Amino acid sequence: MQFSFTQHPLFKTITKHLLWVVAITIVLASCAPAQKLGYGKNGHEYFDHKLFENQFTGVLVIDAQTKDTLINHNAHKYFTPASNTKIATLATAISVLGKQTPALIYTVQNDSLYFKGTGDPSQLHPYYQDSTVTQFLSKQKNLVYCPENFQDNAYGPGWAWEDYDTYYSPERSPLPLYGNVAIIFLKDSLYIIPEYFKDSLYNGGERNRKPFQNRFNRNQMPGDSLEIPFITSTKNTQKLLTSLLDKNIEIGTFPKGDSQTLYSVPTDSLLKRLMHQSDNFIAEQLMQLSAGTLTDTLNFNIARKHALDVLFPEMPQEPRWVDGSGLSRYNLFTPASLVYLLDRLYAEIPQERLFHLFPTGGKVGTLKNYYAGNPRPYLHAKSGSLGNNYNLSGYLVTDSGRVLIFSFMNNHYRQPTQKLKTRMTIFFEAIRDNL
């Protein structure tokens, strides 16, 4: 029996891939400049491909300089954004916060230092390990902690209850310490940070932590270390500070009158981790920081309202925006709204700084293993993933030097995400090579 390579499954796979590339390339090469992407400005025929038939897809691509729309498919319809929500958080924080992060608000009265948190997430954080606050407090004699400025919930609306003991879901709080997580690790013996929880380990069970207690399961230890969110409260913050400073901490009300601000890490260091590592905790605390900068109260809704009413009143479709991280499936953004935010950022921030804050395809952050350029990076974007949802929004630099702003959103699919990423890569590379 004579073997025919054309009948081999590999040949069919390669042919299918090449036809996809050729089809996009022909469309890009044959249309007028304003219509090069996807059969005119709508591009519906392109998305008739069977890959998209059982999911919901929306794409918007514009030219950063001319603002011409290059492709528009469902761009004004709402999608679950997942961590693309962090683009709105980034835009808010950049507009509201200064170069340094406010770490503590304090005043001195009657030989006592009254202090309240700002929401700064860097204090003793596993990554930053900043000790600005604790070093400052250690030099004071009488300390009074005032938590009344925090007027929010520890969890965002719609957060999954089952994530309470997972590293990506720490609680929100006014004065975070250690990133609001306990770290358990093996060295010569078993250790836990903060050491305050050393007597809070137990054996057995399927969860990393007891649901309503700061008791951590030592049996869930992996090979190196495990981060487990702990329950935050005024009482727990008081106990942690007392343990750290070896000082008595009283609870009180912040006095009226003048106050001073203590600053910690550069704000860009928070923004970079927000985007590169898609850090949910940093995202939530940045919104608390923004609210506290605008008012005397830490509350997500204050920062969101300021962003929508004052900073971005011309957003094409008002989003349903319920948290800073995108953990909640209640969030709803359109591709057009995300492109609007990205366009505002591009207009107001130097390109070098802006692209440095975003993950870069094939290089850094959550895109390190995807969308690599050859020979140079071409994609600077934020991904957003939840079960059955994958979105990517950001900036694409073409071989001709044009900067394009895009949002490519995929919701409610059942296929492997990797297959979707492969198709998206082909799409982005065709744009890069032909515009």
Automatic annotation (TrEMBL):
Pfam families: Peptidase_S13. One of its GO terms (biological process) is peptidoglycan metabolic process. InterPro entries: Beta-lactam/transpept-like, Peptidase_S13. GO terms for molecular function: serine-type carboxypeptidase activity. Belongs to the peptidase S13 family. Keywords: Hydrolase. This is D-alanyl-D-alanine carboxypeptidase. The keyword Zinc does not apply.
